[in-house]
Specification:
With about 260 residues, the chain is of the alpha/beta class. The longest helix is centred in the middle third of the chain and has 22 residues. The strands form 3 sheets. Strands 2-1-3-4-5 form a 5-stranded parallel beta sheet, with helices on both faces. Helix 2 runs parallel beside helix 3. The protein folds into 2 domains: about 120 residues, Response regulator (Rossmann fold), CATH 3.40.50; about 90 residues, no CATH class. It has 6 helices and 12 strands.
């Protein structure tokens, strides 16, 4: 019983926790797709949020283009639904800014229905375009398609590349010769994987090249130095100059 004249005290619970944005990391994958809505009309944003949340998506909102870019950096969405007619910056510029550092799927939802507007948005980097007024079932279907396509591309990029007995796992940053793993320097492990669009061919200098219709970005050099245990006559050589000797000594062709 509390003493007369004193008020009873409830146990202290401390400050209420606040929600913090999740960081994208391999240790904590997103449990459901995260969609960023960049739309200045509040009723449309609320309708999109309810519809996407009903499909099991996590939803983040932004009212302006600059706010949308900030939210994209903070929340790392899996897909962006973008209106072109924003109050502070044109949606085309938002697409270009997003594409400077991200390949996130972008679905345009805009009242601009002219062909030139659609072409400009798609050329800037958008993946799909839907005009207002729109059907929510069609929008949700296009969102599903964009997410499926992004998942396939991510899976293809994570596929190890094999050249003869060399196997390179770019996602794990590991290189193998047969069953033996080679130790790479940090500079070696920063190499990017070649595009999986077309079959690769290998030259004696261990440069993997792929045909590219655009003519750019289709040729990437593999790691030039590998720290292992070369034969005595190969010590001091870089991988490009040592590989032909290595293959010839074992009766292997220079290229497969």
């Amino acid at each position: 019983m509390a003493a007369p004249g004193s008020a009873s005290r409830s146990p202290s619970r401390g400050p209420r926790p606040t929600c913090q944005p999740r960081k994208a990391s391999p240790e904590m994958p997103a449990t459901k797709p995260r969609v960023l809505i960049i739309e200045d009309e509040k009723p449309i944003r609320a309708f999109l949020r309810a519809s996407l949340a009903g499909e099991g998506h996590e939803v983040v909102e932004a009212e302006t283009g600059r706010e949308g870019l900030a939210q994209a950096t903070m929340w790392v969405p899996d897909l962006v639904v973008l209106d072109l007619g924003l109050p502070d910056v044109d949606g085309i510029e938002v697409i270009r800014d997003l594409r400077k550092g991200s390949q996130v799927p972008i679905v345009i939802l805009s009242a601009r229905g002219q062909e030139r507007d659609k072409v400009a948005a798609l050329d800037a980097g958008a993946d799909d375009y839907l005009t207002k007024p729109f059907g929510i079932r069609e929008l949700l279907a296009r969102v599903r398609v964009a997410l499926r396509h992004a998942a396939r591309v991510a899976a293809a990029d994570a596929t190890p590349v094999a050249i003869a007995e060399f196997r390179m796992d770019f996602e794990a940053r590991r290189v193998f010769v047969g069953d033996r793993e080679l130790h790479l320097t940090p500079t070696n492990t920063s190499s990017s994987p070649p595009s999986p669009a077309t079959p690769a061919r290998c030259s004696p200098t261990v440069t993997c090249s792929r045909k590219s219709g655009a003519g750019a970005g289709g040729r990437r050099a593999l790691p030039s130095r590998v720290h292992g245990r070369p034969a005595a006559e190969d010590r001091g050589r870089s991988l490009p100059s040592a590989l032909p000797v290595y293959r010839a000594r074992r009766g292997l062709p220079l290229c497969r």
